[in-house]
Amino acid sequence: MAYKHDYDKILTRLSYILSRLNDGEALSVKDLAKEFNTSERTVQRDFNERLVSFPIFQDGKKWKMQEGFRVEKTKSLEDEIILDIIEKITEGIGGKFASKSHKLLSKIKNQDFNPIYAKLNIEDISDKFDEIQIIEGAIKSKKEIVCSYDDERHDIFKVALKPLKIVNFEGFWYLVALQEDVLKKYYLKNISNVKATDTAFSTDAKLEDLLENSVSVWFQKDVEPFEVKIYANKIAAKYLQRRPLPTQSIESLHKDGTMEFVIKITHEMEILPIIKYWLPHMRVIEPEWIQEMIDEDINWYLNNQT
């Protein structure tokens, strides 16, 4: 409970600081330390680590919000709708993300009524705010981090990482990072004791493109992408046209509503769960070995029912 109390104090302090900066104030570390009855070192850490991703800067001994980044009420109907959708997404995440985002969005929106409803199954990672802020700052500045990781099979171990992206696949949050130039995915909830370093790193355009076009957490770095051709009947085709898969391209669309499409993957597990989810409305045309894997799994399942 002591940890939760400290965590809430940090969130309250950061929100208060950002609110005053947004109002155009120039804040000094010394004055804030006195106000919060804490050390100047703690407040300085707020600015250097916890608030590093926000558009703030130090002018002499005071911190300010950069010009042009102040949050103001929106008057655009289109902006209102977008903000309504964002608010519903964060409500789906829940926890501190929902409450804090609601307070922030209330500064932008002109009304409290939200006609948008969204039901999302996304895990709550608001207890990882501190770690996320450090990781986000390291991703933007391309600096390595060191952290502890619990892989749920062995003891917790320390690791040095080159963080690339924080991603969400199927409702779960991961940190995609390079460890000694090997691309790995770390379950975000199992990361702790994150510390930024001054060690810089670089990435190539090919890796960035791979991250942007990944279908699931199974994507691989050193595997050449290959094509999978898939048949979808009219039931599945309708949804895949509304919400295409990453890298999806339609090869043929028929009058009866069925279609054949192609996606590029680096590992069979990127597509196998999707095909199984849509059974019997979808099947793999080529390569045949992927459809054979699906058939084997179905046969095993049917033969092992009691």
Please tell me about this protein's structure.
- By secondary structure, the chain is an alpha+beta fold.
- The protein has helices at 2-22, 29-36, 40-50, 77-93, 95-108, 129-141, 205-212, 234-242, 272-278, 288-303; strands at residues 27-28, 56-59, 62-65, 143-149, 157-169, 172-179, 182-187, 191-200, 226-232, 249-253, 259-265, 282-286.
- A hairpin with a 2-residue loop joins strand 5 and strand 6 (172-179).
- Mean pLDDT is 79; it is low at 1-7.
Compose a concise summary of this entry.
By secondary structure, the chain is α+β, with helices and mostly antiparallel strands.
Secondary structure: elements and pairs:
Layout lengths: L1 H21 L4 E2 H8 L3 H11 L5 E4 L2 E4 L11 H17 L1 H14 L20 H13 L1 E7 L7 E13 L2 E8 L2 E6 L3 E10 L4 H8 L13 E7 L1 H9 L6 E5 L5 E7 L6 H7 L3 E5 L1 H16 L3
Antiparallel strand pairs: 1-3, 2-3, 4-5, 4-8, 5-6, 6-7, 9-11, 9-12, 10-11
Helix pairs in contact: 2-3, 4-5
Percentage beta strand: 25-35%
Give the termini separation. Answer: 46 Å
Q: Output mean pLDDT.
A: 79
CA radius of gyration? 24 Å
Helix content: 40-55%
Q: Quick one: biggest sheet?
A: 5 strands, antiparallel
Q: Judging from the principal axes of the Cα atoms, what is the shape?
A: elongated
Keywords:
41% helix; 306 residues; single chain; four-stranded antiparallel β-sheet; disordered N terminus; alpha+beta; 25% strand; five-stranded antiparallel β-sheet
